[in-house]
């Protein structure tokens, strides 16, 4: 499994993402719509784990530290995806390739999805927020599976039999895969689930979010349609 771990994933928006994660956990106290820890660890910033140091912080006027702000033009899709609750990375990030096994014995590599927009979703059968959003992912799949779109839904830290039974009981048909060791989830900082990324047709990650979302709304469908059309 070759996954690039660029500091670019962590160098921008750390404070915002930490605040977002805390907000989702607070809202989860009254509704199962937040993110839950997959490893009994505090929520971390979405984005692949890094082997490099993040960009150095700079001192602000009041003495606090702040992450440098990129002066590069914002991606054309930034406003739309941010309104849907996604953090948009300053530029698309190449995370290399990975391969995951499916419960039925097949496999899927990110490289095989090149040319398609990918919804990469880390989840678990025991996770209430994950279970809450899964019907909407199924509807998104049903509506866009015949276009340049696919789903890579990765069960983190669970065995094949558990996932197979859950999928069969709930009659889900969108592409579901296994990460029993949690290695891939760890590489993508999915210590809180659901953690979800949008990957563009070039195989680069453009946005991510933690917590449950509705993926079949007209706004989400329109956003994916626009990404597929580029």
Name its key features.
globular, 6-stranded mixed beta sheet, alpha+beta, two-stranded antiparallel sheet, single chain
Question: Can you tell me about this structure?
Answer:
This protein is an alpha+beta fold. The protein has a single domain, classed as Glutaredoxin (3-Layer(aba) Sandwich). Helix content is 30%, strand content 25%. The chain contains seven helices and 14 strands. The strands form five sheets. A six-stranded mixed β-sheet has the order 5-14-13-9-10-11. A two-stranded antiparallel sheet has the order 1-6. It is globular, with a radius of gyration of 17 Å. About 22% of the residues have low confidence.
Helices and strands in order:
Layout lengths: L1 E2 L4 H4 L2 H14 L8 E2 L20 E2 L5 E2 L11 H6 L3 E8 L1 E2 L1 E3 L5 E3 L7 E7 L4 H17 L4 E8 L3 H11 L5 E4 L3 H5 L4 E2 L1 E5 L4 E7 L7 H12 L1
**Overall morphology:** globular
- Order the strands across the largest sheet as they lie in space: 5-14-13-9-10-11
Structural class: alpha+beta
How far apart the termini lie comes to 29 Å
Q: Please, how many helices?
A: 7
CATH class: Alpha Beta
CATH architecture: 3-Layer(aba) Sandwich
CATH superfamily: Glutaredoxin
State mean pLDDT (0 to 100 scale). Answer: 80
Share in β-strands: 15-25%
CATH fold name? Glutaredoxin
Which percent range fits the helix content? 25-40%
Cα-based radius of gyration, to the nearest Å: 17 Å
Q: How many structural domains does the protein architecture include?
A: 1
What is the ordering of alpha helices and beta strands?
Answer: EHHEEEHEEEEEHEHEHEEEH
What's the β-strand tally?
Answer: 14
User: Sheet bearing the most strands, described?
Assistant: 6 strands, mixed
Unreliable sequence segments? 6-23, 26-32, 39-45, 50-68
């Amino acid at each position: 499994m070759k996954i690039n771990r660029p500091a670019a994933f962590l160098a921008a928006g750390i404070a915002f993402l930490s605040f977002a994660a805390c907000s989702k956990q607070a809202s989860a106290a009254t509704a199962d719509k937040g993110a839950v820890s997959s490893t009994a660890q505090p929520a971390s910033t979405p984005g692949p784990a890094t082997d490099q140091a993040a960009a150095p912080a700079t001192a602000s006027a009041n003495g606090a530290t702040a992450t440098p702000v990129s002066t590069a033009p914002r991606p054309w899709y930034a406003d739309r995806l941010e309104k849907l609750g996604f953090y948009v990375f300053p530029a698309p990030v190449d995370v290399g390739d990975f391969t995951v096994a499916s419960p039925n014995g097949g496999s899927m590599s990110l490289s095989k999805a090149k040319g398609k927009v990918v919804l990469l979703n880390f989840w678990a059968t025991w996770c209430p927020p994950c279970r809450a959003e899964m019907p909407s992912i199924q509807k998104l799949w049903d509506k866009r599976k015949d276009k340049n779109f696919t789903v890579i839904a990765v069960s983190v830290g669970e065995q094949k039999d558990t996932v197979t039974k859950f999928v069969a009981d709930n009659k889900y048909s969108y592409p579901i895969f296994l990460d029993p060791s949690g290695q891939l989830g760890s590489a993508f900082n999915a210590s809180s689930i659901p953690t979800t990324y949008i990957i563009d047709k070039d195989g680069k990650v453009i946005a991510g979010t933690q917590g449950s979302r509705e993926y079949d709304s007209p706004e989400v469908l329109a956003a994916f349609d626009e990404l597929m059309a580029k």
